[in-house]
Request: fold
Amino acid sequence: MGSTGEILEELLSVEAELHDVQDQIKILLDQQEKLYQRQSALKALLEEEESQASGCQQSEGSSAAKENWSGSFEWDSRADDIRFNIFGISSYRANQREVMGLEALGIPAYMLTSTTSKEDEKFIYKTLEKGEGELKVLYVTPEKISKSKRFMSKLEKCHHAGRLSLIAIDVSVLIAHTFLLFVLNFH
Reply:
C-alpha cells in the first residue's frame, strides 16, 4: 500500500464521502416521511368524503366530542416496529410526537423545519407577522433560527405586536451539533 500520509488522505476522503451519503439518506428519509404523512391526510379526506356521501353526516345541531389521543396506545409498539424495521426511520423527528399530540388535543401546533410544506410555511409566517390564523405552539429547528433572516424578521414582528409570550430553546441539539463539528474538525 502507500505511505501513511496517502492512507490517511484516502481515509479522510472515505469518511467525507460516508458523511455525504448519510446526509443524502437523511434527506430521502425525511422526504419519505413527508410523503407518508401526505398519503395519510389524503386517505383521511377520502374517507371523510365517502362517509358524507353515504349519508353518515351528523345532524347540524350536534357536535362530535374530540377524542383524546394523548398517552400510550396498544398499537404504539407495533407502529414503532414498522417505523424502524419497514421504513428504516430510527425515530420520529424531534418534536413530531409533541406536535401530533397537541393537534389531537385541539391545540394549534406546527413545526418549521427544512421539510415543512410551502403551504404550512406560508401559513406560519403569515400568522407570525399578521396574527392571522391560529398558532399556539411552534417548534423550530436551530438551523431555521440561525440561518433564516425571514423567520427572524417574522418573529420580531410577532414580538413587537405583543403576540409572543414565550420562547424555549432546546440546546441539546446545538450541543450535539457543536460536538460533531469538533470531532470532524479534529481529524
